[in-house]
Every structure is written in structure tokens, then in C-alpha cells.
Amino acid sequence: MSLVTLLVALIIVGAILYVVPMLPIDGTMKTIIKVVVIVAVLIWLLRNLAPNMMV
To answer: Can you give the pLDDT at residue 50?
Structure first.
């Protein structure tokens, strides 16, 4: 995975996390959305970067 792809993905995720608090929905739902987005990004990063980190 290239560094540009990683940066673009993190910028998009950051924008999503920035917009979520502005949504007119319940606070609990906002928290759930944030957690789901963060967990999905962590899984994506681990799946894409883990093979490169093996010794």
C-alpha cells in the first residue's frame, strides 16, 4: 500500500469523524458511528500493513 493511499484514506476518515458530531441524531448513535468507523479503519490498517511488518 502506498503512502498516498494511506494518507487519502486517513483524511477521508478524519472528515467523517469531523462531520458525525454535526448530524442531528442522538448522542448514543453518534458514539456508535464513531466507534464503528475507528474499528473499521484499524482493521483495514492491520490487514494492509501487517504483511509488511513481518520479520
So the answer is: 76
